[in-house]
Amino acid sequence: MISNIAQGVQAFTSNVFLVSGDRPVLVDAGANFDIVDTVRARVDDLEAVLLTHTHRDHVGNLAAVKDAFDVDAWGYDTSIEGVDHPIADEETVRLGDDEYVALHTPGHKNDHLCFYSEPASVLFAGDLVFQNGSFGRTDLEEGDRETLIESIDRVLERIDPDLAALHTGHGPSVTTDPYEHVELSARMARQS
């Protein structure tokens, strides 16, 4: 089961997805809210935190989660404080009950990863794309529009057109025609 435990939080934070099952993990840690009690209300234990990228709104709560649950954080770049273990491009990682492939998708930030499970038909897109054709900012440090477009195109080539769920770093998850939202993001990024 996948739930956004930051849903409804009135603070500067990213979405935080709790993936329960065989290997309970968090995808991102969010910021500026009491994540520890929120997680404890739902699961007894965590095995890891997987990071889509290390912008402050995605990792502000990371130290608290690592301390409270005695877990490590996994991300693309271990030279960044708080990232304990690397996840390489195309590496397979287990989230809950399913295997996901990590896709290095820079453009919003150099260490950005998406996680895609073909069997589960789920994409964790971080801040690469959002609902209704929105896409990650490229006006921040390490942002690059052409690189972002290449990353969106790479994800589009990889995901199944019948994708069931798109979980994004901000805003609601998309469960109605999520592939079309990713396609629209690719078009909109080229027009802006």
UniProtKB/TrEMBL annotation:
The GO molecular function terms of this record are:
hydrolase activity; metal ion binding
Q: Which SMART domains match?
A: Lactamase_B
Question: Which residues does the UniProt record annotate as the domain Metallo-beta-lactamase?
Answer: 13-167
Cofactor annotation:
Zn(2+)
Quote the InterPro entries the UniProt record gives: MBL_Glyoxalase_II (IPR051453), Metallo-B-lactamas (IPR001279), RibonucZ/Hydroxyglut_hydro (IPR036866)
Its keywords, alphabetically, are: Hydrolase, Metal-binding, Zinc
Q: What is this protein called?
A: Metallo-beta-lactamase domain-containing protein
